[in-house]
# Entry
Amino acid sequence: MSTPRQPLLHDALTVLRAPTQAWSAPNGVMGGSAIHGLYLADVRLVRRLTITVNGVEPEHIATASNAADRARIQYLVRELDDDTADPGVRLVLDRHTTGDGLTDSLRVINRRSEELTARLVIELDADATLMESIKRGLPATLTPTIKLGGGGDADVTAEAHWSGESVDATVRAHGFALSAEGPTLYLVADLTVPARGQSDVAWHLDAVDRIAAVRAASGPVPWSVPDVTTGDQRLSRWVAQSLTDLDALRMTTVHEPDLQFLAAGAPWFFTLFGRDSLWAARLLLPLGTELAASTLRVLAGLQGADHVDDTAEEPGKIMHELRRQTLILDGDTALPPLYYGTVDATALWVCLLHDAWRWGLADDEVRALLPALHRALAWMRDHGDADGDGLLEYVDRSGHGLANQGWKDSGDSVQWRDGSLADGPIALCEVQAYAFEAATHGADLLDHFGEPGASQWRSWGATLKKRFHEEFWITDPALVGDLGPYPAIALDASKRRVDTVTSNIGHLLGTGLLDEAQSDLVARRLGDTTMNSGYGLRTMASDSGGYWPLSYHGGAVWTHDTAIAILGLRRSGHDAEAASLISGLLAAAEGFAYRMPELHSGDSASDSAVPVPYPAACRPQAWSAASAVGVLQAVLGLEPASGGVTTKPLRVAGDVTVDGIVVSGQRIRVPATP
# Structure
């Protein structure tokens, strides 16, 4: 028996509107890859779909999509054609997903001067397999029973129904006759296509999740859409594609249907994630504060109140992820439906609240969240600092939760330079930066609103900063080389400095945790060729013992990780290093047709003319897509300031002209860089 393998995604077509997603080959056919299928709410409802005309598969010639929830797929039907050179019969499939299903509209077009008859047959296999099983590479185990109803011929709307894993699916088809055999549903349309005319049919699948935790968002997008024109069109194309993708990732919880957030990413993480949703909202702040406000509110509504080791809940803690039921990741890891196993989301919640306020979030909206702010700050002191040493660390007390609880949450993400794993509890370097920023900026909010505690949190932050400077810096000449000292990725259980050079240090910049000389040292590291791949920032330096360009957190490039470093470099005055990383992301964006995946290979741009995919990466993915706006912010030097928006344009590649961005209710114009 072969070992189960996680499905690859990099060459699949995806059409989605959260929580619905359809994965297929570029020709729209499903079944040739383990990820293929139509999903709703982490349940696959269709695992195979084929199309034939007169018993023959049509020949695929083009696939195009101008929105994440739509694709047009075109074929030739030469079985119906004459013997001239020019193709004369085409099939056009328009696939459209909504929050509760999918519609396939099919049109046979005839340019010939005679009428044609065509039997169009759609075959689909019903399914009810959980996404977690598919991610683990396990086979489908449940074969639903298909029930027909509503008419069996093509003159009336025919229906078919099946259920599994608490999801009910209904197929409705007009122009098709329906029949079923085992798990296979047959949709058959006998078409008469007039001379120089066309014939149309369509079918639709609706689904209802009876135990849903999240659902599709309704209404307009909660951000302004900028009109970006650049001399180098890669940036404008990336922004446009990203905002389209983010639109399709909008969701709400079932209990707070008016509060939108961004699902983390397709296909694995179609739900609320504390860290991911917070970072995505933070990166989008230049386009408005509405998404940030609703993300803050929905997370505050789920803020921890009790001590529960099984769920990692603690008073004041911001949750990690929300699922419809327990999520089985492997034999040792099972996450409850509401799981709090994250060390950084609580501090990031405070950081987003402060930044949204600076970008223009109304005082009344911030004031309503002050009780949650007090609780979040208290969590950092009383629970995040588990051993009382003034630093934040994490450990899984449940025995079945995540072993690593920072943003690099894979089991091998915290390594020594020789590739061996560090033992927890782990104190990550970037978490200390988030906590320092949360303490100092939380104090600013408390002062502004006349709340008590500001001096206490500034003092707490100052102590953390002092501890960081004392404990995290690696100065051994045998390790630092010509680039000088650098911060460890973490302290291990024995408070030893874990000595690998990683991208985590980029998150320290611009937070106030580092002094000017320390920022210079970090910037120098990030700009070195061991870290800068030419397509973005590697998660681990290429001279590390555990480095591998296709390692999830040990060498691959994450778009959001690079964007965070870019913003920090800009804020700390390291424009050359920021510009180099921006150029790399623009090259990668072009290589991925401007839909940046969750991560890609750390292979050097000097060795590969195009970025190499990480084949199981989510796409689209919220913080990768939102990074386009973060890069736009960095290029223009946009920062909120009293009375308006400050700008300091940065030349990257080609002239940059941006007109009509709405920032905190103001329209700004930035001229081309000289």
Observations:
- The mean pLDDT is 93.
- The radius of gyration is 26 Å.
- The first helix runs from residue 131 to 135.
- Residues 13-209 form a domain with the Beta-galactosidase; Chain A, domain 5 fold (CATH 2.70.98.10).
